[in-house]
Amino acid sequence: MTTTITNELDEAAVGEFVHRFITDLGAAHHAVTVAIGDRLGLYRAVAEVGPATAHDIAAAAGCDERYTAEWLNAQAASGYCEYDAETGWYHLTPAQRACLADEDSPTFLTAGVFLAAALFKDEQRLAEAIRTGAGFGWGEHHHDLYVGVERFFRPGYAANLVSSWIPALDGVEAKLRSGVTVADVGCGHGASTILLAQAYPNSTIVGFDSHPPSIEAARVAAEKAGLADRVRFEVAAAQDYPGRGLRVGVHLRRAARHGRPGRSRPAHPVVAGGGRHLAARRADGR
């Protein structure tokens, strides 16, 4: 088959593509202001003191008034906050608050921009990897990626992991309640690992990740949650993960041997294969 490519310019097609590109470019520019608003606590300040003036919001966030006003105007123009021209007050609607300012909301979205921010910060190295074929490991990304992933996905885990996802797996919840050892593979900063430990106190949860700084952050989070006796975090190389050799089971059994004294443990750990999908097996093999 022969494909004919014409060089004739279709003005309507060009116009459509230009509109698409400019829309994407504008979104990318606005994403930077979202990251700044989150990093400086500006969305939280609007949620707490609004409806309020730029002066009051800047004071609440500890920021410069003039630049805060510029930031607020950008948010209002993009539909990320509301502005009353008569009073000069800014505020968040309930929907905007849930998505931009409330980290406990299952619809919290703001942290997602840090995933994109990390890719922009990694752009030169990513380009070099594509040019040379040298590869780019998960642990080589900018720090914003790991923090962004944890903050972006944690509200969804909190809203769904224990209440609906685990109960949807045949027989898994009963085993978790009775007491098994769980491997949370690709645990990152440990949000899902800690949630499992809180919900199933009879089980021991072991988080694995190939990124040592993430493992350290997870250990700190578990300590703060008072779960250090039932949660452990171990570094596992990428080739150790299920689907790449299943050697993570060896690491898990080794970790399980160092559990709480006097605690009965299953001979076969619960292993999370391919992400956070749990498969449970008790000591009796069932």
Helix count equals: 12
The geometry reads as globular
Number of strands: 7
Question: SSE order, as H and E?
Answer: HHHHEEHHHHHEHEHEHEE
Please describe the structure with a list of short key phrases separated by commas or semicolons:
five-stranded mixed sheet, alpha/beta, 286 residues, Arc Repressor Mutant, subunit A, Pyruvate Kinase, Chain: A, domain 1, 7 strands, disordered C terminus, globular, 3 domains
Give a description of the structure:
This protein has 12 helices and 7 strands. It starts with 10 loop residues before the first helix and ends in a 7-residue tail after the last strand. Helix 3 (54-61) crosses helix 4 (65-78). With 286 residues, it is of the alpha/beta class. The longest helix is centred in the N-terminal third of the chain and has 29 residues, at 11-39. Strands 5-4-3-6-7 form a 5-stranded mixed sheet, sandwiched between helices. Helix 11 links the parallel strand 4 and strand 5. The chain folds into 3 domains: 11-102, Winged helix-like DNA-binding domain superfamily/Winged helix DNA-binding domain (Arc Repressor Mutant, subunit A), CATH 1.10.10.10; 105-152, no CATH class; 166-279, 3-Layer(aba) Sandwich (Pyruvate Kinase, Chain: A, domain 1), CATH 3.40.1380. The chain is globular and about 65 Å long.
